[in-house]
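User: Before I run my own analysis I want an independent prediction to cross-check against. Here's the chain; please return only the structure tokens and, at the end, one sentence I can use as a sanity check.
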Amino acid sequence: MKRRWLILALAASEAALAQPGGAEPFADGTWTLLRLTDAQGTVTPQGADPPTLTLVGTRVSTAEGTQVSGSTGCNRFTGRGAFTANTVRLGPLASTRRACTPEVSALEARYLNVLSRVRGLSFSPNLLVLSTGRERLVFGNRVTALDASRLFAEWRLVGAVGDTPPTLRLEPGGQVGGTTGCNTFRGTYTLEGNTLRFSPLATTRRACPSPELQRQETDYLRLLEDVRRYRVTGSLLTLILEDGTERTFQRPVNGG
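Assistant: Structure tokens:
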């Protein structure tokens, strides 16, 4: 009896997956390229802006398809695809035409070449592998919409001087504000997976009460200009700069 019940349960599960919209998105989120293997060999992307792949609407047997976008580390691309539990087929990808460094351009060409021809897929919550057969793209470090929402708080810079440390407040609509410890600022940000960039920030022009606070303000605004990625761990926010250095912020406890 137990064996018969198990067989019926498995059959019901497979039938549900076969229905359009019958499965929840399974690989939605922004993935970071960890390794690329093609005829030229295997490469592990380095630097502050590794290639990414963002998927929205990965369900089995969907009619509308999956929204596909991402970054080559220099340019942006968009398109659509059809995903199942173990196959993928992408349509044409439209890409921006920004000039890149020779090294980034070479990786970009290899990445888009393999990505446009992938057919096989294997997936776990923390790893996505797309393959053409002999060529492979291995992605990890997935950031979901829920992960990104943890950014929406007010953060204080750790290790600041003075009684009023610089702050950073990110809002869901793409607005950012805060203080330098001396002046206030406003601007916008763009968020793509774990990639974070700030627009030029508008600040008030109040004179800082000491040279130390003036230097801190200058350094802080320059820091925000150089932000490329982020990581949230518990009550800590780590901003990763263009040169790979990191600065830590803390979320006040109970509004303190």
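Sanity check: The two ends are 60 Å apart (CA to CA).
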